[in-house]
Amino acid sequence: MSRMKTFYLETFGCQMNVVDSEQIVGIARQLDYVLVDSPDRADLIVLNTCTIRARAERKVYGHLGRFKPLKQQRPSLIVAVCGCVAQQEGRRMLEKTPHLDIVCGTHNLHLFADMLRRVQTRRERCAEVSFLDAGQRRRLFPERLPSDEVTRFVTVIQGCDNFCTYCIVPHVRGREVSRPSAEVLEEVRALMRQGVREITLVGQNVNSYGCKEGDEISFAALLRQINAVEGLERIRFMTSHPKDLSDELVACFGELEKLCKHIHLPVQAGANSVLRAMRRGYSREQYLDRIARLRQVCPEIRVTSDVIVGFPGETGADFEQTMDLLRQVRYAEIYTFLYSARPGTAAAELPDDTPATLKQERFDRMLALQEEITGNYHESDVGRVLPVLVEGSSRQGSGQLFGRTTWNRIVNFDGDAALIGHVVPVRLVRAFRNSHLGELA
């Protein structure tokens, strides 16, 4: 009797990588691999990678370095890198890392099984990083595995056409391609039959869904069709580009009862000079107008965002404008990043003479301001009774369940497992940094 084959998978980066990792799991299982939770126990190690910042890329190479002794102990071990670092580095990764066997780019997961067989049968190290044309990509949108989870991602668009000057994504994910709406709807219906109750529509820029195809419906129209699917409780989406946030899409927050009252709308900077240098396609004033329109149609909506500190050329006055924008918008949460130059992007060629210590000082000031704003939201929610979609057992243990509010806030509370998959009223009784403690109302 042959020994069971095992694989270890680690995912870095955004929601698109999470979707790709599900596809990797499906491929490995079709080849009779069983998932394990440690690289020490694996016959196959897969890193699904992100290169949005230099730190993320360094982390991948750091992990690869730790796998070298495992490969020396067990030469039959197969080590693979997929995703954005694989796409950016290509065959260079094989040259840099002699114990690496497979480099599989963002458009090539459909070749992963064949690459794995080549390594197994011929010990042939291989790299596949070719971009596919739009027609091929439309046919190869990831098929989802059956699941007993309450919430799932559904991919609606891949790639990005914006080419913001700081961003590597269009270079490693390719141009925008929308998935046929009929296919999206069929997947949503299939997920409902499996017991899923919330879906998050994902893509690098979901707002531009259907714009390049000519014969496809708009993203707002897609939301309306999904809202009508029986059995579905909640809809979320990410990520939105502010310049493509149409009036039709804004109106959905006031019209669709299943659409959660939360939007992630990355602003990146609050000064027009920086926004122009970033090539974001909107002004500070236009962004604030979009926020005002969202709150007009849905007064309870909460907004989260991404902000970059220390973009090349950012002055003290520019930074203060970003701080002022945070005070005006009052985000529920922001994800703040120190600027990281990415090779091949336009911003990497810009002069950057701001000292690292000053950038860090600005970063810390912004973080302190946002923590105060976020804390005010969390404390103000204590005592409220809110509908919570119960997703499963809490990581806090003690027999607790966890779920999320419409604002995507985690709530832990005592309750029977029979509640999983249902929306229940929960009173929030205590606020923590990353979650609330609640009790069934």
Kindly describe this structure.
With 441 residues, this protein is α/β, with parallel strands linked by helices. The protein has 4 domains: 5-130, 3-Layer(aba) Sandwich (Rossmann fold); 133-260, 2-Layer Sandwich (Transcription Regulator spoIIAA), CATH 3.30.750; 266-282 and 296-381, 2-Layer Sandwich (Transcription Regulator spoIIAA), CATH 3.30.750; 382-440, Nucleic acid-binding proteins (OB fold (Dihydrolipoamide Acetyltransferase, E2P), Beta Barrel), CATH 2.40.50. 37% of the residues lie in helices and 22% in strands. It has 14 helices and 19 strands. A 6-stranded parallel sheet has the order 2-1-3-4-5-6, sandwiched between helices. The longest helix is centred in the last third of the chain and has 26 residues, at 356-381. The protein is globular and about 60 Å long. The model has no long low-confidence stretch (mean pLDDT 94).
